[in-house]
Amino acid sequence: MRTPTSSKTKVTPCCSKVGLKRGPWTPEEDEILTNYINKEGEGRWRTLPKKAGLLRCGKSCRLRWMNYLRPSVKRGHISPDEEDLILRLHRLLGNRWSLIAGRIPGRTDNEIKNYWNTHLSKKLISQGIDPRTHKPLINRNSSSDDHITNKASSSSPSSSSKLANDFNTISNPIYIPFQMEEPLRSSININHPGEITSLDDYQYQSNAMLANYNIDDLNIVVEEDDEMNCCRDDVFSSFLNSLINEDMFNSQNQQITNGMFPDFDPLVNPTQDNQQESG
DNA sequence: AAGCGTTCCAACCGCAGTCGC
DNA sequence: TGCGACTGCGGTTGGAACGCT
C-alpha cells in the first residue's frame, strides 16, 4: 500500500502552475499537441509539453488528448442505445467511468461521467430510483441498506473510505454469494459451494467468474497464473458482454424506462423466486 | 434588451496504483 | 524496502451557453 501523501508535500512539479498556462485550449495548442503525438506517439506526458513546445503540464496535455483530440473520440449526442448501455454498465460497475467508457466505443470517461451527472442521474431520481444504488429511493433509509448507502454516498476522499466505496459500489449491484471481509485487494475465492447451490447455472458461472476478478479494479486475479493473465482482458470482456446482454437487464431497464422499478433484483439476490433464465 | 438563474461540459485537482531505482 | 516519478482515475469546479421572466 502506498504511503499516504499527507506526510510529504502534495505539490508535484507537474501540478506546479509556475509559468504554465491553464484554462481552455486554443486551436494552435491543439494542433501542436496533435502533431507531436502523431509523430512521437502517446505517453511520457511529463516531458511531452516541453518537447512539444507547450506551456502546459503533462496532465493537461494527456487530458486534452484523451478527452478531445484523440481520433477515436466520438463527438455528438449520446444515442439511446449508448444511454441504455451506460445505465446497464453503471448498474454493474458503479462510478467506474473508465471501465464504462471502455465498453462504449468512442466515448470518454469524462464524457460519460458528465452525461451521467447531468442527465441520467436526474432521470433516475425523477423516476424514484437512487442513481447510486439503482434501487428505489424509498428504501434508501432502510436499515438493511444503511451500510451501503452511507458508504456509497460518502464523498470523503480518504483512502479507506474510497476503497469501501468502491467495494460497495461493485458488490451492491452484483450478487456475491458470501460476505467479503477480507482485505479488498485479495482475490475472492469461489470455494463456498454451500452458499450458491440455489443459483442457476448461468449465475453460478457469472459469480464464479466474478469471484476470480480482483474486486477492486475488476481485473482478473488468477492466483499468479501468468498464462491465464495473458487472456484475462478477453475473458472479462466476454463476461461483461454476457452480463450486459442478458434479458434480465433488458426487462429491468424496460421497467426503468417506464418509470417503474422491479420489486426484486435478481443480481442482488438471485435466490428469490423470480430468477430468470439466461439465454 | 437586460438581468438573473440554471444547465452543461471542458478542465482542474487531489489521490492512489504502479514502476524503477 | 523505501522513495520518488509517472500515470490514471473519479470528484469537483468555473464559466460559457441557454432559458426564463
List the main descriptive attributes of the protein structure presented here.
single chain, 279 residues, mainly alpha, Arc Repressor Mutant, subunit A, two-stranded antiparallel ribbon, 12 helices, elongated, disordered N terminus, disordered C terminus, DNA-binding, Homeodomain-like_sf, transcription cis-regulatory region binding, Myb_dom
Main-sheet strand order equals 1-2
Distance between the termini: 42 Å
What structural class do helix, strand and pairing data support?
Answer: mainly alpha
Rounded to the nearest angstrom, the radius of gyration is 21 Å
Unreliable segments of 5+ consecutive residues: 1-13, 139-231, 247-279
Average pLDDT taken over every residue:
58
Element-by-element helix/strand order: HHHHHHEEHHHHHH
- Global geometry: elongated
Counted by DSSP, the helix tally is: 12
Q: Can you tell me the CATH class of one domain?
A: Mainly Alpha
Please state the second-level CATH architecture of one domain: Orthogonal Bundle
Determine the strand fraction and express it as a percent band: under 5%
State the total count of DSSP E strands: 2
Name of the CATH homologous superfamily of one domain: Homeodomain-like
Oligomer: single chain
Q: State the helical fraction.
A: 40-55%
CATH topology tier name of one domain: Arc Repressor Mutant, subunit A
The biggest beta sheet is recorded as: 2 strands, antiparallel
GO molecular function: transcription cis-regulatory region binding
Main location: nucleus
Organism: Nicotiana tabacum
Keywords: DNA-binding, Nucleus, Repeat, Transcription, Transcription regulation
